[in-house]
Design brief:
There is one protein chain. The protein has 168 residues and is of the alpha+beta class. The protein has one domain: 2-Layer Sandwich (Heat Shock Protein 90), CATH 3.30.565. It is 24% helix and 25% strand. The protein has three helices and seven strands. The protein is globular, with a radius of gyration of 17 Å. Bound molecules: adenosine-5'-diphosphate and magnesium ion (MG).
Amino acid sequence: MTTSACTVPTLADERHAAPRWPHSTVLPLGVLPTAPACVRAHVRLVLAEWNMASLADTAELVASELVTNAVLASTDADGHPLYRGGTLAMVYVRMLADHARLLLEVWDTSPAAPVPMHAEPDDENGRGLQLIDAMTDKWGWTSVDGWPGKVVWAALPAAPERPDDTAG
Ligand SMILES: Nc1ncnc2c1ncn2[C@@H]1O[C@H](COP(=O)(O)OP(=O)(O)O)[C@@H](O)[C@H]1O
Ligand SMILES: [Mg+2]
């Protein structure tokens, strides 16, 4: 039996787990044009669940840019989604949070690195990473042991949420 070189990362695996984060969730998505809209809805719902709704606008935008890039990196030269062994390539969106910050991670199977551009006013492309840089504390990327892809991440400070205004 051969093992696919593109076996998905086991995010629950010891190497990739995030045990110190009180909140964590992973969303697998096929590399389809609908993925950015799915991740925006997901991020908004999860942050509401975690009582971090004030981060939703920024986090949605950042996650959407990260996923747009990951999907683009997972398409062929004709813009068709990549299939490996008959299976649609996937991206994995992981959200991790504690009282101080929210970490957004987008894992994709492309070995290529994100390359920040210097978009001119008339340029239509090249603004995603600039935007992420401006809207987050820090971002970066890293290769992942045991699989061919990488994870691109961005960290946002968590604003303290007010208790429910309608209470009492
Ligand atoms: N996940 C990724 N995988 C591979 N390359 C990426 C990824 N994200 C970004 N890049 C590279 O970085 C470049 C800049 O990304 P970005 O600032 O979002 O601009 P744009 O997506 O409009 O090209 C992309 O053109 C691409 O070459
Ligand atoms: Mg982009």
